[in-house]
Amino acid sequence: TESIKWLETVSAPVLILCIALVSLxxxxxxxxxxSTAKKLSPIAINVLSRLMGLLLAAIxxxxxxxxxxLP
Length: 71
Known about the structure:
Blueprint: H1 2-39, H2 42-68
């Protein structure tokens, strides 16, 4: 039971730290992406959007196939 109490007292600060790190990383990535998008041509942005859509569709299909796989 001591290990469970120790885990409960440490888990909240660790969770807050993880949330802060993810938030900071997301902000940095979006900030760099916004400045990079200003430098790209509309054609390049369109191509990148289509590639990201294709990647998202492939990941979605993989999730569905993994869910349908029987043990």
